[in-house]
Write a structure and sequence with these properties.
Structural class of chain B: alpha/beta
Number of helices of chain A: 11
Number of domains of chain B: 2
CATH class of the largest domain in chain B: Alpha Beta
Largest sheet of chain B: 7 strands, mixed
Oligomer: heterodimer
Order of helices and strands of chain A: EHEEEEEHHEEEHHHHHEEHHH
Radius of gyration of chain B: 18 Å
Number of strands of chain A: 11
CATH architecture of the largest domain in chain B: 3-Layer(aba) Sandwich
Chain lengths: ~350, ~280
């Protein structure tokens, strides 16, 4: 694998060149927290962060997105007919995405890119995006990525992986897209032959700093209905206030709602992130609601992440261990604890 | 890449008020671009999203049959924002249709078999599509029974067609109403489960039942069919759930790992026994 060496000057100069041909996005300090934003001219991403509070999923999948335009003006020959909205799918480069969040995109892709239907909005934007990852040297105390099929240096879904090494980056080129942006940026200094070994050593050191783990090995073979009917859901959901924070922060939550918004005679059909934590999510027109109770909604979220997804795709669980829902849940519901309950091989007394 | 969220433009060509409470109307549509009709290749049991710019979309079972060409038909109950707006639209108005969506009744499996159709209330739409399809391909099925009930005679859908089917000798019609004081009512009186008990043929390897109706009807019909020896994989049901995308992406209509919109809406009772009761 090709490894380049990029010193801080080359980094700044390279981004300047890259910025001439594509949009650059990266973490920037936004009040108390970092958030992925488009970089202004000459602006550098701020890598002095552990991870952003919001996941970068909105880069490929905006929280609100226009799908169609329409006019209701009876004098317009196309009135009441939806027209494709104009979209900007010009190339964009994401700088400093953490490996867990990149892995999340490859999980979410399973939902948006199916043999029967392709979600054009998600896929076109995903294809126009180059992902430059930033390895994690100091995982958070509630991150558990190494037990979810990813890790602090995991290359999956990335085009390039940056490893900070004192005042320079070691950059692993992982795909042709990664190769192309390195060329555009003028990053061409190959790192020494000891670089791969150096990266491996740093990777092992980072993994050694992980303090949080989950076990999911029994989930595959347990029956979904058995877990569904387990007795602990009442205790798990007891404190939940259905705020939906977990679903909005989660890099692997993808559910959306579709709404029309009209102003005068013109309007748009748009989609917005939605959350299975809300009663309206499943409410029928008749008033009947299959998941009208909090317990049912909380169970739905964990069952989807840790069991339904696993059964459906056989690509692991729908969680990358980024720890955001653990850190920001206002009532301290902890997916690691729920996973442990679901994974237990024997019936157990309810204790949380 | 084709955008799966873009509806075909259609024009309303006819509106029929079906029931005495005027809450159910049948809308007949023609495609504005004839090529779209060819792309809209459907089977009895599928549904589509009716799309009204400025209001939204609703998933509705297709009431016309694949053997009827040149138009699509949907019978819509007035319930919420979109359906209420639709009920106020007029012949000639333009809107959109997206589909066909979902799976269909298992016509390949039911070929050469007896089919018992059990419907209640306004859930008779895809069953109408199925009956028209089977009658047009009559030699591909053995005995056909139809048990269809509504609250009153005035709440039955497709009354003219029901009368036509009554006259035929190659389909056994068992129309019923919960109650009526109409002295001219010459069909059955009683709830659908009761009439099923009296009229449905016994379950065999060669007999399939398709049930579509309100939850209360399904709840009480299921034990009757079990009593008549219908195996759970011979009892076929069509489900509904709140939907948005209709193509298994938006996440709204899931029951466990299955999406009603894409893996359904048609499931056998055998399948449903192993799924959460989230519908």
């Amino acid at each position: 694998m090709k490894v380049l060496k990029i010193n801080k000057d080359d980094w700044a100069n390279g981004l300047k060149k890259l910025g001439e041909s594509c949009r650059l996005l990266g973490p920037l300090k936004d009040g108390e927290f970092h958030n992925f934003k488009e970089l202004g001219q000459g602006e550098l991403p701020d890598f002095n962060f552990r991870n952003t509070r919001l996941s970068p999923k909105s880069i490929v999948y905006p929280q609100s997105e226009k799908m169609f335009d329409y006019t209701l003006d009876q004098n317009d020959p196309n009135h009441n007919i939806l027209k494709e909205a104009e979209k900007d799918y010009s190339p964009q480069v994401v700088l400093g995405i953490r490996p867990c969040d990149a892995k999340a995109l490859s999980l979410v892709k399973l939902n948006f890119d199916t043999p029967e239907y392709q979600d054009t909005y998600w896929l076109k934007r995903f294809e126009s995006t180059t992902l430059v990852g930033l390895a994690c040297h100091n995982p958070c105390s509630n991150c558990f990525c190494t037990s979810t099929g990813t890790g602090p240096f995991h290359p999956e879904a990335l085009d390039m992986l940056l490893v900070e090494d004192n005042d320079q980056f070691l950059a692993q080129i992982l795909t042709e897209k990664g190769e192309a942006i390195a060329k555009t940026a003028g990053w061409s200094t190959e790192a020494g032959s000891d670089a791969p070994a150096q990266i491996t050593a740093m990777k092992e050191a980072a993994e050694g700093r992980m303090t949080s783990f989950i076990s999911a090995e029994n989930l595959k073979n347990k029956s979904a209905m058995e877990i569904y009917e387990d007795p602990y859901w009442e205790d798990v959901s007891f404190s939940c206030i259905n705020c939906g924070t977990c679903t909005y922060l989660c890099p692997t939550c993808w559910c959306f709602d579709v709404q029309d918004e009209t102003c005068g005679n013109c309007g748009i059909r748009m989609r917005n992130w939605d959350s299975c934590m809300y009663p309206l999510f499943s409410l029928h027109g008749s008033g009947h609601n299959p998941r009208g109770q909090k317990l049912q909604r909380v169970r739905q979220r964990f069952m989807h992440k840790l069991k339904y997804f696993l059964d459906k795709y056989d690509e692991g669980i729908q969680c990358v261990g980024c720890g955001r829902c653990v850190r920001y849940c206002p009532v301290n519901i902890d997916i690691r604890r729920v996973c442990e309950l679901m994974n237990r091989s024997e019936a157990c007394p309810v204790t949380i | 890449m084709q955008n799966p969220y873009l509806p075909y433009p259609v024009r309303i060509s006819e509106i029929i008020t079906e029931t005495e409470d005027r809450n159910l109307k049948t809308f007949k549509y023609v495609f504005i671009d004839p090529e779209d009709e060819e792309k809209f290749d459907y089977q009895a049991g599928q549904f589509a999203e009716l799309s009204i710019a400025g209001k939204g979309e609703i998933p509705i079972g297709i009431a016309s049959s694949p053997v009827e060409k040149g138009f699509l038909k949907f019978t819509v109950n007035k319930v919420g924002l979109v359906s209420t707006h639709l009920h106020n639209m007029k012949v000639g108005d333009v809107m959109g249709i997206r589909g066909p969506l979902g799976n269909w009744y298992p016509w390949d499996i039911m070929e050469g078999k007896n089919v018992v159709i059990i419907g209640g209330g306004f859930a008779f739409t895809t069953l109408r599509s199925s009956i028209v399809y089977m009658l047009a391909n009559r030699d591909r099925f053995k005995e056909i029974h139809v048990i269809y009930g509504a609250r009153t005679p005035g709440m039955l859908l497709y009354v003219d067609e029901l009368k036509e089917w009554e006259k035929r000798d190659d389909i056994h019609m068992h129309i019923t109403v919960d109650a009526t004081d109409d002295p001219d009512w010459k069909y059955n009186k009683g709830f659908v489960p009761t009439i099923t008990d009296q009229k449905a043929p016994p379950g065999t390897d060669d007999t399939y039942a398709i049930i579509c109706g309100p939850p209360i009807m399904i709840k009480f019909t299921q034990p009757v069919l079990e009593k008549l020896d219908y195996a759970h994989d011979h009892i076929i049901m069509s489900l509904e759930n709140r939907m948005k995308c209709g193509i298994g992406i938006c996440g709204h209509c899931n029951i466990g790992r299955h999406f009603v919109c894409k893996d359904g809406p048609v499931f056998t009772l055998n399948q449903l026994n192993n799924m959460p009761k989230e519908y």
